[in-house]
Amino acid sequence: MKYRLESRWIKLLFLGVIISLAGCSGGSHESGESAVDIKTNGKITAQLTSPPHVPDPIGSRPAKHVLVDMEILEEEAQMANGVSYIYWTFGGSVPGSFIRTRLGDEVEFTLKNHPNNKLPHNIDLHAVTGPGGGASSSFVAPGHEITFSFKTLNPGLYVYHCATAPVGMHIANGMYGLILVEPPGGLPTVDKEYYVMQGDFYTKGSNGEPGLQPFDMQKAIDEDADYVVFNGSTNALTGDNALTAEVGETIRLYVGNGGPNLTSSFHVIGEIFDRVHVEGGKLINHDVQTTLIPPGGAAIVEFKVEAPGTLVLVDHAIFRAFNKGALGMLNVTGDENADVYSGTIQEGIYQPEGGTIQTMPGDKGAPAAPQAASLSERIENGKRLYARTCLACHQEEGQGIPSAFPPLAKSDYLNADVDRAISIVLHGLSGEIEVNGETYNSVMTAQTLSDEEVASVLTYVYNSWGNNGTEVTPIMVTKAKSSH
Ligand SMILES: [Cu+2]
User: Fold this and answer.
1) pLDDT one-digit tens code per residue, 324-362
2) What is the pTM of this model?
3) Which of 21, 23, 376, 407 shows the greatest Cβ crowding within 10 Å of its Cβ?
4) How far apart are the CA of 468 and the centre of ligand 1, in A?
5) How far, in Å, from the CA of 323 to the mean position of ligand 1?
6) What is the assigned CATH class of domain 43-188?
7) 170 CA distance to ligand 1 middle (Å)
8) What's the CATH architecture for 375-482?
């Protein structure tokens, strides 16, 4: 009898909850107030952090005018032992700097493209409500900066990325990161927070092949990744770079996936996620083993570490973890907790097979070339310069990329006028041109090369892929400069 009464009470309560839930269906934000109407109070400069670090929590601060100052850098860094890659980065790291805001902030975003960079870029932030997520207002050439602003209207964890053509290539080179929009009052306090982002990489050489590896467009199109990694390289979260925690601490991981192609089956070997903000949004799932994070998506993962040992972050599409690098470590120190787990703890049991890559002195390319003594030496120097400077756009065999980068192979435009070609490399080129019957209307930025280097790279191009065999000398370059 008593039991029946109780169960009726529970039903009534349950009904009440459903009604009250339905009553606030429109407002994902502060008690009925739309985020558009949240007033800002004061101005601050955003603290930006490189992975695996995240900026300080917003806590109870009101919405503010937030200045974000981000610089794009194209730079060579290590992908794996003995393997390097030219990354294109937001803020000098892959993933790019972490941006932390709160609901209702007015973000004034300044994007700078370093003068030494070779390419124009822009940024599309998934946290932005507006054309292209900001991409249409942020296209910026090397040596320039641009400012645009937006208001954060939805709380959550969002991906940002470059959206300059060819978009896939810019993303594949590391141009992505995360921006967090905290709800008013902030997320609940935890002991440790970390920033982890997965990405897939496509290199001319196969996994482990040493040296500076150029991007491989065809493998990217085929989704045939050579590396799948957390935070831009196979070593970013292992060894001395492992994440750390102490027994009893609560951990929050901001996990994103830059792609460009592969969906992550994100898992931590030896843990169960107590809470997952599914897809980086408001929905919270509990007691999760593996959470799916698509390219251009994110999740907030929380768990308490109860016992000492090494927890291993993986993409549970497991060949990616043990053979392509998608592996990170969280070292938990502290007292044994026999109630939770007891047993032999073996050091290094999860060493990736990718960690056994043979290290060889990588060919980092020639230092600043001395004057070439012969045509063949000039071509040889030019070939190295081409790989470093032009290949990213015009491709390995000079074939270009349809409707983005014109071909240099058998190019009627190139072969018709050598002085014009010299001028293009020196000063860049924009506006409509026709190459082998196809129209291009894009931007090639000026290349920062010495006269000797311009001569060598063009001589290589003219003596490759069916072109007319012209030799370009430094004197021709100097003359072209003075006649300009
Ligand atoms: Cu870009």
Assistant:
1) 999 999 999 998 777 776 665 444 434 444 333 332 333
2) 0.70
3) 407
4) 33
5) 28
6) mainly beta
7) 5
8) Orthogonal Bundle (1.10)
Phi, psi torsion values for 253, nearest 5 degrees: -105, 130
- CB-based contact 272:304 (threshold 8 Å): no
CA of 166 to the centre of ligand 1 (A): 9
For ligand 1, the distance from its centroid to the CA atom of residue 272, given in whole angstroms, is 36
Q: What is the pLDDT of residue 10?
A: 42
Q: Where are the domains of the chain?
A: 43-188, 194-333, 375-482
Q: Is 316 annotated to bind ligand?
A: yes
Distance in Å, CA 163 to ligand 1 centroid: 6
Q: Three-class SS string for the chain?
A: CHHHHHHHHHHHHHHHHHHHHHHCCCCCCHHHCCHHHCCCCCEEECCCECCCCCCCCCCCCCCCEEEEEEEEEEEEEEEECCEEEEEEEECCCCCCCEEEEECCCEEEEEEEECCCCCCCECCEECCCCCHHHHHHHCCECCCEEEEEEEECCCCEEEEEECCCCCHHHHHHCCCEEEEEEECCCCCCCCCEEEEEEEEEECECCCCCCCEECCECHHHHHHCCCCEEEECCCCCCCCHHHCEEEECCCEEEEEEEEEECCCCEEEEEECCCEEEEEHHHCCCEEEEECEEEECCCEEEEEEEECCCCEEEEEEECCCHHHHHHCCEEEEEEECCCCCCCCCCCCCCCCCCCHHHHCCCCCCCCCCCCCCCCCCHHHHHHHHHHHHHHHCHHHHCCCCCCECCCECCCCCCHHHHHCHHHHHHHHHHCEEEEEEECCEEEEEEECCCCCCHHHHHHHHHHHHCCCCCCCCCCCHHHHHHHHHHC
Q: What is the distance in A from the centroid of ligand 1 to the CA of 135?
A: 10
**C-alpha of residue 444 to centroid of ligand 1, in Å:** 13
128-172 residue pLDDT tens: 988 888 888 889 999 999 999 999 999 999 999 999 989 999 999
At the top level of CATH, the class of 194-333 is: mainly beta
Q: Is 144 annotated as a binding residue?
A: no
The reply to whether 43-188 and 194-333 are identical in fold is yes
The tens digit of pLDDT for each residue in 14-38 reads 444 443 433 333 334 444 568 899 9
> Is 121 one of the annotated binding-site residues?
yes
Annotation-wise, does 1 bind a ligand?
Answer: no
- What spacing in Å lies between the alpha carbon of 111 and ligand 1's midpoint? 11
34 CA to middle of ligand 1, Å?
A: 33
